[in-house]
Structures are given as structure tokens and as C-alpha cells.
Design brief:
With about 140 residues, this protein is mainly β. The protein has a single domain, classed as Neuraminidase (6 Propeller), CATH 2.120.10.30. Helix content is about 0%, strand content about 50%.
Amino acid sequence: MVFVLMKGKSKPIVLDSMVRPNGIVGTPDGKQLYVSDIGDSKIYKYTIKPNGLLANRQLFIANTSADGITLDEQGNLYLAGKGISIYNSKGGQIAHIDIPEPWSANVCFGGKNRDVLFITASKAIYTLKMNVRGVE
């Protein structure tokens, strides 16, 4: 289940239609939310309404498992799992970063300019200087 607790509210909204939700990230403008259902190998995209409620659930990517998720400044979605898969804002895969381990658990941008991709994997942490910046 995914629990969404709105500012000023005491009761969370529950999204219980997923097998095993895991990675989650919102767009910087507060209008979209991506959620990975790692138990069903799907990535969903929701619209965040002005009142904070979620609407318009869309299957964004099928047959893809993802653990951690992050976004870059161009709206590309980075999915941790078997390496890092990168998808554009329309759901098309544009790149893949191979990691020499069976699983990559999390991914985020960091560094002084938010242009270093940090990847946690089974046995190590990897960093990669990027030509884009993260939004988180």
C-alpha cells in the first residue's frame, strides 16, 4: 500500500491497488507522481490534483521492475533494478546504465551541482558524473 498524508490532514489516503509498491517520486512542479509496483513489474503515473488527491492513474511502463526512482531536470525517469534504466517523459526507454552486480537498489542525484548519479547496489555504491542535473 501507498499512504499519502496531505498537509493539514490527519487521515492518509491509501492506494491499495498495487501488489508491492516500492519506488516513488514526484515531479518538481507537484503535478505528477510516479510509483513502481515492483511486485507486478509496472510503473504507474498519477496526476496530483490541486487539492493533493491523486487521479488519472496511467500505466506508464509495463514489464519493468524498479526499486528506487529519481528524475532529472529534463523529466527523464531513472529506475534502479538490473542496472539503471532511463525513460523519457513519454515512457520510452532512452538509455541503460549497466552495473556489475545483480541488483541496484536505489538511485539519486547529488553533488554540489546535483549532476552526480549515486547508485546503491548489492555490494557497493557507484557514482557517475552526468550531463544533466537531478531535480530532488
